[in-house]
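Project outcomes to date are best conveyed with an example. Our students and postdoctoral researchers have been running inverse folding experiments weekly, and each run begins with a structure described purely in tokens. The record below, which covers 332 residues, was selected by the lab manager from last quarter's runs and is presented without edits.
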């Protein structure tokens, strides 16, 4: 297995840091918690999609595309970063956005939506919350073809096996850092949505024969559905890179107790987690992904799921621009 042979663009200088969260660990009285700062990845405002895009955009360029097409919610971090990668590469970018379940979206919405405009999105197509994003993207690509242009479609969250290579590379980076600091991690906790981050990490740790166990904290689905998505992507990623061993027997763990009423709907546990990390460590999480993932880590610690000797690595997957769209949750 040698995934280095895949083409890759480079959007970050060096490794993202791993920091020990001493005050948070003390406040929770559980395992030693560290944080992998993927919120400090390159491209506009960082976050996990930067790693996936290094491989996806390399593939788009190889195929001669001039426009990246992708989709997501109005506050999609993935759309912001895909657009930022397009800007960096001199490509254009068109987005399909799903309207919030609560109704049509505010054309002056802040956060990521504001950044879509600032970064010069070429076109935004909004569809109903239950609309077919894939069909809408294919329609965009067809229109481009009619104009003699070439679009490259990136599915929701960049979660294809090519995108997952970014998180195989991240697992490799974590293993190197663990060796350098003599700190092997027993667990890695991450938010899991479209599944590419978790699938890539599991594949990367398997490739390294690492003992680090990955725990996904769901942001939308039920446990069985999320585990099935991650498992399928793990399998296709492992096939792509020729990873040996019984991949189907690999444990995939996704916790669904911290989703609350649904995707992007705030919970009191998320608010507590975002406040606690800000007030103990001065680090900003986000209300949709990392806030719920940290609520999951806190909940599991309180349930006694880790020992005091465990080393737990929390993956900060980014997302802070969305924090500025919900001041009502944090201003008393
Ligand atoms: C900030 C942030 N964290 C985590 C995730 C989840 O990652 P994945 O979709 O690879 O499961 C996303 C996905 O959009 C995200 O924007």
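After processing, the design step wrote out the following sequence:
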């Amino acid at each position: 297995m040698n995934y280095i042979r895949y083409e890759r663009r480079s959007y970050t200088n060096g490794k993202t840091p791993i920091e020990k969260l001493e005050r948070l660990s003390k406040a929770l009285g559980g395992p030693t918690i560290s944080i992998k700062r993927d919120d400090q990845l390159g491209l506009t405002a960082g976050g996990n999609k930067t790693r996936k895009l290094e491989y996806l955009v390399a593939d788009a360029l190889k195929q001669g595309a001039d426009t990246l097409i992708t989709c997501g919610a109005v506050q999609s971090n993935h759309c912001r970063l895909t657009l930022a990668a397009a800007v960096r590469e001199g490509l254009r970018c068109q987005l399909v956005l799903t309207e919030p379940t609560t109704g049509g979206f505010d054309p002056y919405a802040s956060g990521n939506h504001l950044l879509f405009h600032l970064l010069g999105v070429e076109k935004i197509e909004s569809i109903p919350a239950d609309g077919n994003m894939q069909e809408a993207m294919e329609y965009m690509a067809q229109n481009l073809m009619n104009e003699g242009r070439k679009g490259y479609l990136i599915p929701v969250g960049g979660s294809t096996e090519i995108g997952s290579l970014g998180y195989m590379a991240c697992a490799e980076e974590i293993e190197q850092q663990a060796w350098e600091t003599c700190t092997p991690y027993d667990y890695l906790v991450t938010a899991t949505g479209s599944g590419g981050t978790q699938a890539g990490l599991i594949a990367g740790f398997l490739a390294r024969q690492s003992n680090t166990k990955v725990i996904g904290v769901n942001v939308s689905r039920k446990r069985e559905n999320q585990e099935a998505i991650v498992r399928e992507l793990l399998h296709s990623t492992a096939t792509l890179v020729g990873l040996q061993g019984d991949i189907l027997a690999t444990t995939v763990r996704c916790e669904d107790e911290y989703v609350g009423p649904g995707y992007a709907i705030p919970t009191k546990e998320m608010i507590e987690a975002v406040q606690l990390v800000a007030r103990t460590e001065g680090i900003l999480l986000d209300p949709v992904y990392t806030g719920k993932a940290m609520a999951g880590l806190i909940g599991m610690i309180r349930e006694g799921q880790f020992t005091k000797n465990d080393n737990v690595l929390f993956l900060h997957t980014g997302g802070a621009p969305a924090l500025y769209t919900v001041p009502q949750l944090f201003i008393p």
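Residues 47-48, 77-78, 157, 159, 191-198, 286, 289-290, 317-319 surround pyridoxal-5'-phosphate (CB under 6 Å). The longest strand covers residues 67-73. The training component of this project remains on track.
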